[in-house]
């Protein structure tokens, strides 16, 4: 039996290129990684790469689309398990907290990538913006199902909380302030519920950080 690696054909070539570029871009930054490094790590020829991706921008957009699809598959799976809107919000925040506090996390792919490119790279920035707009749309859909004073305002605040958790999570090697995202989401929802509503939850008081630990 030959020890030579199996030669990839068809869409397997494209998948291999996107797999390798996804890892390299995230760890090193998009601009820092050249096409030659993607080719070296993937074992794919330059001619094969250009058949699928005529430019580096095409490869970047494909990587962003891969990340986008992965994110929403996870979101949809959590949504199916949590039919109640408030429970879903906390469950979504929980898996995003776990992502943002995981070892090796380097921040939101879409925010990081958008920061690397100016307005001349319209397709790349639009792909990043599309992801954030979809997050905002879904949050508004959830808050519209809650008994709150202003669902759109709540969605805006939840969006900022999530993006902030991703940002700070990219700075800490693991854990850090992003660990409190689910609790923050619950607090924001509670603050938006009308006074006297039967859906108000009784939250435990915040512990005084100067008090001795029991």
Report what the structure shows.
By secondary structure, this protein is mainly α. The chain folds into two domains: 9-54, Arc Repressor Mutant, subunit A; 64-192, Tetracycline Repressor, domain 2 (Orthogonal Bundle), CATH 1.10.357.10. It contains nine helices and no strands. It has helices at 11-28, 35-42, 46-52, 56-81, 85-100, 109-116, 122-143, 151-169, 181-192. Helix 4 (56-81) packs parallel to helix 7 (122-143), helix 6 packs antiparallel against helix 7 and helix 8 packs antiparallel against helix 9. The longest helix has 26 residues, at 56-81. The model is unreliable at 1-5 and 200-214 (pLDDT under 50).
Describe what is shown at a glance.
This protein is an all-alpha fold and 214 residues long.
Layout of strands and helices, then pairs:
Blueprint: H1 11-28, H2 35-42, H3 46-52, H4 56-81, H5 85-100, H6 109-116, H7 122-143, H8 151-169, H9 181-192
Helix pairs in contact: 1-2, 1-4, 4-7, 5-8, 5-9, 6-7, 7-8, 8-9
Keyword list:
single chain; 214 residues; mainly alpha; Arc Repressor Mutant, subunit A; Tetracycline Repressor, domain 2; 2 domains
């Amino acid at each position: 039996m030959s020890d030579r690696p199996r030669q990839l054909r068809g869409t397997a070539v494209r998948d291999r290129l996107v797999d390798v570029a996804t890892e390299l871009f995230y760890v090193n930054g998009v601009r820092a990684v050249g096409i030659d490094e993607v080719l070296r790590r993937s074992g794919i020829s330059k001619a094969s790469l250009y058949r699928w991706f005529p430019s580096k921008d095409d490869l970047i957009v494909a990587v962003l689309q891969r990340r986008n699809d992965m994110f929403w598959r996870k979101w949809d799976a959590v949504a199916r398990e949590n039919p109640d809107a408030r429970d879903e919000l906390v469950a979504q925040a929980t898996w995003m907290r776990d992502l943002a506090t995981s070892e090796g996390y380097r921040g939101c792919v879409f925010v990081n990538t958008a920061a690397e490119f100016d307005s001349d790279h319209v397709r790349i920035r639009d792909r990043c913006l599309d992801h954030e707009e979809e997050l905002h749309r879904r949050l508004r859909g959830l808050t519209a199902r809650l008994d709150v004073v202003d669902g759109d305002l709540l969605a805006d605040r939840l969006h900022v909380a999530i993006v902030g958790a991703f940002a700070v999570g990219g700075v800490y090697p693991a854990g850090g302030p992003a660990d409190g995202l689910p609790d923050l989401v619950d607090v924001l929802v509670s603050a938006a519920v009308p006074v006297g509503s039967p859906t108000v939850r009784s939250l435990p008081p915040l512990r005084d950080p100067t008090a001795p630990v029991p």
